[in-house]
Specification:
Blueprint (H helix, E strand, L loop, with lengths): L11 H12 L10 E5 L4 H12 L6 E4 L14 H11 L7 E4 L5 H14 L6 E5 L5 H11 L4 E5 L15 H20 L10 H12 L9
Parallel strand pairs: 1-2, 1-4, 2-3, 4-5
Length: about 220
């Protein structure tokens, strides 16, 4: 959606792309001490984290996540174990993979991963966090609140909006989760869960219109 356009007249996908583009940070990655794959319903996140490891961007891959609202009926094992299995299939050595299978949200992903590394005497100075494309900004903002010390880079599978939906993760679900994650940018900042981030007027306008069109299932109260 272009700046100044009437959101009520915009196609739904144009509105969703406005939110999607806002949530992407497009960091240029430099080598780090650890790659942390933050759990989600999309195994492509774990696969992308594995490929970053195989490119030599870190000596360690930590997969974090229990079973959540989107995965409890989808995955046979925790998000972390599912991601770790994907990484092993792609050739990441088992000795390079750590698994944190208990966290239930992004804040716990960060806290529990930090504790797991500390137990092994690892205090990273630079971290690459891997999430879904439309969660990059929220992951960054949460990380900066919960664990601000490391230099943080955020990455996601390089999949454009139009190619992202799958049979298992359909378009309307993607848009609903995206709408919920954008709302969390200000709600969670107000609650102290994330550092504040500016939200441009066109993003808020697109968000309001998508809510008006019924994409409310992942909003927080």
């Amino acid at each position: 959606m272009t700046s100044g356009a009437n959101p009520a007249a915009a196609p739904t996908d144009d509105l969703a792309r406005t939110l999607w583009d806002y949530m992407l940070l497009r960091h240029d990655l430099a080598p780090a001490d650890v790659i942390i794959a933050l759990g989600s319903n999309d195994v492509r996140v774990g696969e992308h984290a594995a490929r970053l490891y195989l490119r030599g961007l870190a000596p360690l891959l930590l997969c974090s996540g229990g079973l959540g609202r989107l995965t409890v009926r989808e995955f046979e094992r925790s998000e972390a174990e599912t991601f770790a299995d994907a990484a092993l299939r792609l050739g990441v050595p088992r000795a390079a993979v750590l698994v944190e299978p208990a966290s239930a949200n992004t804040g716990e992903n960060i806290d529990f991963s930090r504790a797991l590394l500390a137990e092994r005497g690892i205090v990273p100075s630079r971290v690459i966090a891997v999430q879904k494309p439309y969660m990059e900004r929220r992951a960054w903002a949460t990380f900066k609140r919960r664990w601000p010390e490391p230099d943080l880079q955020v990455a996601s599978p390089p999949i454009p909006y139009d190619e992202y939906p799958t049979a298992r993760i359909p378009r309307d679900l993607v848009i609903s989760i995206l709408v919920g994650d954008v709302q969390r940018m200000w709600v969670y900042a107000e609650r102290g869960f994330q550092v504040p981030q500016p939200v441009p007027d066109d993003v808020r306008a697109a968000w309001r219109e998508l809510v008006a069109r019924g994409y409310r299932s992942h909003l927080v109260g």
